[in-house]
């Protein structure tokens, strides 16, 4: 791909999307940032005055219809589709998680297929689309980008299904919709999907209150602030800044085309480890962190190395990720109290 590029980023005012926007801007690309909320988009732009000429904001209020993206894709060279519902506070999982995730992918790809300038679409899938909860060691095994979550659509949307499981379904069926679209429609662009596990790190998107933190960072804050020790469903994670690099490399590297990558640090984590890091890194940590212990589950593995090699990602250490986020969260808390 020629540089600089003009890239549409969806979910640009979310946790991961904002870092993807920043990584593109840092490398000199132009970004069209899609958001549901223009005020949030404007906040993003105002807080990056040095990039005013490279960044424009587009409002896409409902990504469930094809028409919603037809204007947003005009004249761009590529798309990084990050937006998808990621919340466990649901009342109707199919309506709030599964259907919009699939509809979002289809709408972006349909619109992209009308725009001849688009060469590649990178989609943020998730390790949730890879995980098979029924597969337990021993024997020890390693998840790779070849693996798929065996959940059926019916299981994902069943009334008794929890939001956690429905979210896993939303990511699986949204990603499958993308691969199916490419297979059947043979568009003029190729697709790359990234399947990150728990993603942590400092925030770059507009968040007014700690109560509005994205799902994954909210877990770190729950430990640091002493609220609770959450359950670590998997021991795999990645730093949001490394994941942003992976997105941009996935967009630009020819050899990444038509591939699926699991982007994950080789180091494993537990919320017990979060507690240790906070106690060691912050003076206030010992008196405040959540009670309870949690061991790192080192009984199975995930291959993040392949993505690291192809996409040139040097994964950060867990300690640095936790420290950088908690440092920022504590400042937010001080501001909230004052
Ligand atoms: N954080 C993790 O641990 C993690 C791990 C693996 C994969 N992922 C994936 O990464 C992506 C971003 O997640 P995140 O952690 O950055 O969460 P986030 O901060 O909640 O961001 C989600 C983004 O998606 C947009 N969005 C959500 N529902 C939407 C809908 N119905 N219509 C249009 N836009 C919608 C939001 O738009 P607004 O800003 O306009 O509200 C927001 O920008 C998601 O695809 C998620 O599945 C996250």
UniProtKB/TrEMBL annotation:
The keyword Oxidoreductase applies. Residues 5-151 form the Ketoreductase domain. One of its GO terms (molecular function) is oxidoreductase activity, acting on the CH-OH group of donors, NAD or NADP as acceptor. It holds the Pfam family Epimerase. The keyword Oxidoreductase applies. Keywords: Oxidoreductase. Belongs to the NAD(P)-dependent epimerase/dehydratase family. Dihydroflavonol-4-reductase subfamily. This is NAD(P)-binding protein.
């Amino acid at each position: 791909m020629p540089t600089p590029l003009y890239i549409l980023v969806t979910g640009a005012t979310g946790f991961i999307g904002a870092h993807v926007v920043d990584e593109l801007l840092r490398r000199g690309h132009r970004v069209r940032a899609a958001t549901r909320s223009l005020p949030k988009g404007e906040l993003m732009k105002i807080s990056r005055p040095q990039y005013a000429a490279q960044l424009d904001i587009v409002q896409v209020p409902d990504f469930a219809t094809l028409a919603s993206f037809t204007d947003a894709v005009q004249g761009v060279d590529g798309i990084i589709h990050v937006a998808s519902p990621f919340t466990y506070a649901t009342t109707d999982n199919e309506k709030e998680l599964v259907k919009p995730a699939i509809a979002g992918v289809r709408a972006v790809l349909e619109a992209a297929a009308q725009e001849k300038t688009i060469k590649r679409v990178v989609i943020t899938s998730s390790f949730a689309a890879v995980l098979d909860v029924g597969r337990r060691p021993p024997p020890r095994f390693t998840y790779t980008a070849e693996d798929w979550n065996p959940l059926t659509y019916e299981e994902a949307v069943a009334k008794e299904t929890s939001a956690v499981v429905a979210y896993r379904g939303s990511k699986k069926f949204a990603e499958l919709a993308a691969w199916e679209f490419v297979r059947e429609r043979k568009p003029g662009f190729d697709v790359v999907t990234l399947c990150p596990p728990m993603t942590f790190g400092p925030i770059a998107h507009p968040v007014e209150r700690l109560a509005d933190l994205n799902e994954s960072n909210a877990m770190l804050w729950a430990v640091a602030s002493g609220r609770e020790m959450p359950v670590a469903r998997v021991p795999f994670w990645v730093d949001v800044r490394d994941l942003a690099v992976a997105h941009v490399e996935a967009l630009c590297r020819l050899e990444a085309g038509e591939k699926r990558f699991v982007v994950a640090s080789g180091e494993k984590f537990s919320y017990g480890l979060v507690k240790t890091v906070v106690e060691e890194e912050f003076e206030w940590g010992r008196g405040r962190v959540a009670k309870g212990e949690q061991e790192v589950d080192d009984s199975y593995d995930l291959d993040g190395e392949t993505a690291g090699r192809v996409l040139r990602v040097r994964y950060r250490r867990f300690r640095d990720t936790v420290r950088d986020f908690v440092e920022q969260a504590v400042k937010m808390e001080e501001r909230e109290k004052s």
